[in-house]
Amino acid sequence: MSEPLLRVEHLCQYFGPNKAVDDVSFEIQKGEVFGLVGESGCGKTTTGRSIIKLYDITSGSIYFKGKRIAAGTKSYKDRIREARKECREASPERRSELEAEIAKLREEIRSARRDHEQCDKLYKDELVKEVREKYAPLLENAQGEEEKRIRQEYDEALRIAKKQRYITQIQMIFQDPIASLDPRMTVMDTIAEGLVIRGEKDREVLEKKVYDILEKVGLVREHANRYPHEFSGGQRQRIGVARAVVMEPELIIADEPVSALDVSIQAQVINLLNELRHEFGLTFLFIAHDLSVVKYFSDRIGVMYYGHLVELASSDELFAHPLHPYTQSLLSAIPLPDPLMEKKRKRLKYDPLAAHNYGSEQPEMREVAPGHFVRCSREEFERYRQQLGLQSPEDEKQ
Amino acid sequence: MSENNMNVMPSRTEQKTQAEKKLQVHNLRISFRTSAGKVQAVRGINFDLMKGETLAIVGESGSGKSVTSKAILGIQAGNAITEEGEILYNGMDLLKIGEDDFYHLRGDKIAMIFQDPLSSLNPIMRIGKQLTEAMLLKSRARRKSSRREFAARMDQLSKRMEAAAPEKSAEISRQIRELKELEKASVRKEQAYQAARSCAEEAETECENILYLIGKNAWKDLSDAKKVKEFTRRSIHPDVMPEEEFKQIREHVDALTRGLRACQKNGDFSDKASSVQAIQECLKKALEREKPDYLEKTWKEAGHSESLEDGFMKEFRACAETGIRRSDAEYTERRRKALEMLEHGMETLASGGPDALIPELGPVCRAVDESIDPMDLVKDSMACTFTGNMKYLTSRWREGLRSNGRKEKKYLREKARAEKRAAKGKTWTVPAPTVIDMDTVSSNMERVISGLKDHYEERIAEEGTEDKARKTEQVIRDLEEKAAGMAARMDKWTARNKALKLMEEVGISEPRVRYRQYPFEFSGGMRQRIVIAIALAADPDILICDEPTTALDVTIQAQILELINSLKEKRNLSIIFITHDLGVVANMADRIAVMYAGKIVEYGTSEEIFYSPAHPYTWALLSSMPDLDTKEKLEAIPGTPPNMIYPPKGDAFAERNRYAMEIDFEQEPPVFPISETHWAATWLLHPDAPKVDPPAAVTERIRKMKARAAEVSGNE
User: Fold this and answer.
1) Residue of A nearest to B58 (CA)
2) For B148-152, B543-547, B573-577, which range has the lowest pLDDT when averaged over its residues?
3) How far, rounded to the nearest angstrom, does the alpha carbon of residue B432 sit from its chain's CA centroid?
4) Three-state secondary structure call for residue B56
5) Please, which pLDDT band fits residue A394 given cuts at 50, 70 and 90?
6) Which of chain B's termini has less CB crowding within 10 Å, N or C?
């Protein structure tokens, strides 16, 4: 398989003693929509915000297009502490082994810190280097007027390269279209702000880009000079979408983009996101709690419960064969526009203590069927496989 | 134009249904004054709310659903103008009563659950205080109103009884007076009993808790033992825990509290477990005792040899039944008289218009007022509000006569001036005069009179079929309730216990701990449960839920909906459920009203709306939301709702409607009935209209739903 666009490995985000996200791993391939569902407070929004580096993550790594953009150090530090403790009572050979390990872990921490803090700088340096390499021979060969023109071009390119950030290839759409737009900025300013920060100075270019994107999201040019309060809820959310898309991102994190909207407007915004996705080949991390919408929009879905990812599968598979009891209870709670079925519907309750008997064994993500991961213990794993009519891997070997 | 629709309005034709109507909304029109002009938020809607039924109002934001609910609760914004209409509840027109009367209704009879649970709770007040606040505030008002109603009803009943059986009635009246006094004493006693019992319960749960902690070897907070001591002391009561039993318990309690510190130092509480168990057993025994019938007891104590039920009540019942028969016969006669007057009034109105009617209104109103029966358990709203309505309409008519001409003249004058200026090239707009539409006033008069006339005709026809024994039973039960209400005094302790029960009822675990917490210590779902508990604290008749689950996520939403549904069954509540999510509605609603631009465009039972929707707007709503099978592109409703300062001329939905015909832009569609309970306002249902099928997404979904339903019923 090719390198995924986004890879999240053992992401942990703790706020003091509160483990908002705990050991979450998933990948998003280019061009797909990955849905993240769960009840409020389960850490889905925190996951999204950690990816876009609104928080410094506690431990784990996030890779975007193969580059590590965020990394935490807690897991390494914990390991070092343990090793130190062990060191005190260990035999000399073991001690030297452990010391070597500690040194290695220290190196890991250093590299994690460097990646986390300097990924933008490294990216910028790379771009600057590229520009320099491109223009160096040109400048040498050119003379007179020609040289002056090329030098100007070179300065401009260098200036823009210096302003680039790696992280701007990920953009976010927020839930509340009222709160996420500055009431004192016109639509033009709001949408162009990111471009200006990225070094675009030319007013004409900015205007053209803004007008283009406004038309793409179903607004008109005249709207550019208005203020957010002059728009309806759906239109405001379109502005939010335009602001994200104008940066030409590869990944968009949509955090409950339709939850605050009316039903009819919801459909408009979902259709818009769908169109943009096909037109620009965008990849989405779609966070929502409305399961019907997530099912409709996503290719794969991850279900979160109290900071853990408990199940991950393609959307059809997840809805056809929900395995984890929490997923089942979540699916049984979806209200459907069908009075007869609704009257018969039985909501399943999920009680983690009653549903699982983990004992001393820590549950982990296991691939029950191809592409279908469930957080489960060994024994549950066997049971789930039986439910799907698959043989357990031991039997397959024989 | 909407006046003409009035007569075909289903709420009128539906009036024969037997179920008790809790709330009736007729032709409600509400506008808002804004700087840009008058926004017509609600434009003539009609619906009835039956007892024990959920009516869902569905629509986009700005369709007027919240405005309607706020009008029912009398909490409209300051710039709202009630143009016309009536909201009838228990003999009152909620649009015309004053704030003093509303004070007794709001929260007490009609309660509301708001959308955002966080902003509807007071952040600096403990949950317990917020829950009991209303109970404590309302307690005195309730006593007063109970006393008033009891007196009115009793007075009437004893008069009739006297006429029916003069020899017995004097004795009965005397005994009733006595009983009233006894009732007071018995209620006091019962409250004392309840207080003691709840203390015992409290102590019991505390014991349970201590035992659990001892078992886990984790008992840290020793004040629990003090609590047990305190609560057991407070539960001394001859019918809960007699003194001698308490002495026993006290020994155990002393054994428990002695040397606790030492135990804590050792970390070993195991020898305390036995005394806690002993206390718990005693308490359990105390709690198993049956509650004595205090009324009966006081009756006996007052020196009566026969029991209350066999002696006095039997006699009273027989007497009351004859009394009620007499009173009913009398009031039917009065109604007949009023009916004659009304018919006469109609004739006068038809021949001479309001000018001829108004001088004759006095005796008509008097006759109607006299025909209002205080024995009616459910007040006859139409009769009660008749006089008020007529007075209002009369004053409107007179004001119209006085000022309309003047305003018209002024308008013409200003218009002429504006035209002159326009000729000079200046633009100058003249606002249209706010004249009173005399036709509307006169047709409203006709509507009110004919409405009451039809209603009385019906009542007179029904009179013979009524079950008098049952009615007597109901009246007596009501009197008993009122008598109890007169005596019941809500103190803090009783309110607290009631609140704790309520919290358990709405599914808040550990209510005793939660009672002392602040709103921010609760999660979203829990907060919404508290808001529901507060709404239910005063035992309302009608519960208005304004998007109660929109701010919550799926699992919590399902829990809250289940909770509201179960409470509805348990308490026989009538619910108005406002939402924009049709999926939620399918679960809750018995009937659904789909609103668009201030009008109800489709109305029917929930099966009818979901399985055979008729209005294009309902189709659009259904097809614009994805369900679990949706794969194709969603059919979003294009555009936005119309600006209600200038409501569209024809069908308000025409501009966004794929199926709009020319007439939709010209003329407003009337209501077309589809079945007895189902109607829609769209020209598509006109016999001459082309046959149009709902969008494929909708038909496909309905087909699937039907197939699934058939499959499920087949499996069963």
Assistant:
1) A263
2) B148-152
3) 39
4) strand
5) low
6) C
Contacting residues for B309 by C-beta, under 8 A, at least 6 apart = B296
Helix axes B314-357, B468-487, angle to 10 degrees: 90
- Nearest-Cα distance to chain A for B64, in Å, is 14
Mean pLDDT of the region B215-239? 80
E strands in B6-79:
21-34, 37-50, 54-58
Q: What is the pLDDT of residues B285-315, one digit of tens each?
A: 888 888 788 877 777 777 777 777 667 777 7
Whether A292 has its CB under 8 Å from any CB of chain B: the answer is yes
Name every chain A residue with its beta carbon within 8 A of the beta carbon of B638. 268
Determine which helix (DSSP H) or strand (DSSP E) holds A31, and give its type and residue range: none
Q: Is B590 helix (H, G, I), strand (E, B) or coil?
A: coil
d(CA B474, CA B464): 18
Cβ contacts (< 8 Å) between B580 and chain A: which residues?
Answer: 262-263
Q: Residue B558: closest CA among chain A residues belongs to which residue?
A: A333
B255: Cα separation from own chain's centroid = 53
Distance CA A94, CA B99 (A): 84
Radius of gyration (C-alpha) of chain A in whole angstroms = 25
> Is residue A293 pLDDT above 50, yes or no?
yes
Q: How distant, in Å, are the alpha carbons of A337, B352, B662, B699 from that of B687?
A: 29, 37, 16, 22
- As a whole number of angstroms, the distance between CA A86 and CA A81 comes to 9
A292 closest CB neighbour out of B626, B637, B712: B626
CA A376 to chain centre: 24
Residues in chain A: 398
Strand B542-546, strand B574-579: pairing: parallel
| Third-level CATH fold of A171-289 | Rossmann fold (3.40.50)
Sheet containing A67-73, strands listed edge to edge, beginning at the edge strand earlier in sequence? A18-28, A6-15, A59-64, A67-73
Residues of A in contact with B60 (CB under 8 A): 262-265
Q: What is the C-alpha to C-alpha distance for residues B577 and A373, in angstroms, rounded to an integer?
A: 40
Residue type, A123: Y
Concatenated DSSP letters of A305-343? ETTEEEEEEEHHHHHHS--SHHHHHHHHT---S-HHHHH
Interface contact flag, A263 B554, Cβ < 8 Å? no
Measured distance CA(B658)–CA(B682) in Å, rounded: 13
Residues from chain B that touch A264, judged by Cβ atoms under 8 A, are 60, 620-621, 624, 636-637
With beta carbons under 8 A apart, name residues in chain A contacting B635: 267
- Report the SS3 class of residue B654: helix
Across the A/B interface, how many CB contacts are shorter than 8 Å?
132
Q: A293–B626: do the CB atoms touch at under 8 Å?
A: yes
Q: Which residues contact B468 (CB under 8 A, 6 or more apart)?
A: B321, B324, B325, B328
A336 to B620: CB separation less than 8 angstroms, yes or no:
no
Cα of B584 to nearest chain A Cα, Å: 6
Cα dihedral sign, A287-A292-A297-A298: positive
Q: What average pLDDT score do residues B645-671 get?
A: 87
Nearest to A342 among B587, B634, B637 (CB): B587
Question: HSE of A192 in the Cβ direction (CA atoms, 13 Å)?
Answer: 22
Q: Is the Cβ–Cβ distance between A335 and B561 less than 8 Å? A: yes
Residue A187, SS3 per DSSP: helix
- The ipTM estimated for the assembled molecules is 0.80
Mutate to test the interface with A, among B509, B563, B628 (most CBs of A within 10 A): B628
Here the tokens at position A162 are 């210096």
Enumerate residues 6+ apart whose C-beta is below 8 A from B353: B442
CA-nearest residue of chain B to A267? B636
> Nearest residue on chain B to A293, judged by CA atoms?
B626
Yes or no, beta carbons of A289 and B558 under 8 Å apart: no
Question: Left (φ > 0), alpha (ψ -120 to 50) or beta: where does A371 sit?
Answer: left
